[in-house]
Amino acid sequence: MATARNTDRPLSPHLQVWKWGPHMLVSILHRVTGSGMATVGAAIFLWWLGALAAGETAYAGFLDLLTVESGAPNIAGYILGIGLTLSFFQHMMTGIRHFFLDAGAGYELETNKRFAVLTMVVSVLLTAALWGYITYGDLIAPAATPAPIAVEKK
User: Fold this and answer.
1) Radius of gyration for the chain, computed over Cα atoms and rounded to the nearest angstrom
2) Which residues of 46-69 are buried (b: 16+ CB within 10 A; e: fewer)?
3) Measured distance CA(20)–CA(142) in Å, rounded
4) For 49-79, what is each residue's pLDDT tens digit?
5) pTM of the entire predicted model
């Protein structure tokens, strides 16, 4: 009985049937960014707490992976920081989009598509603006000059 199929009922459509659109991408990105921020953020937070509790050597190892001697982020720190920031803004913008959809606005096909694209564009712009602001001081700071050697006089 389990293998019998009623031929009068339509088959459920699958991904190959639907035309891929920005609204589908934004929906998937919302789930991925939420899960990614929770997983990666919790892992880094727990690692930071463990390194803090383990002592100076463990904490220095934690800082070494993410920063340079001056305290500025290194490549891994930038990738992690920018990635989490982009995830945050993407998740936030999609949440705002869903807020308007829950209010009953934006269900028209073109409007929905436009809002979906807008969430991605605004999240990239906000990420660039935030990281531009964070690194602006490093960009305009004068180059460090070595201090002159003090000569001892007798």
Assistant:
1) 25
2) eeeeebeeeeeeeeeebbeebeee
3) 49
4) 999 999 999 999 999 999 998 888 899 999 9
5) 0.78
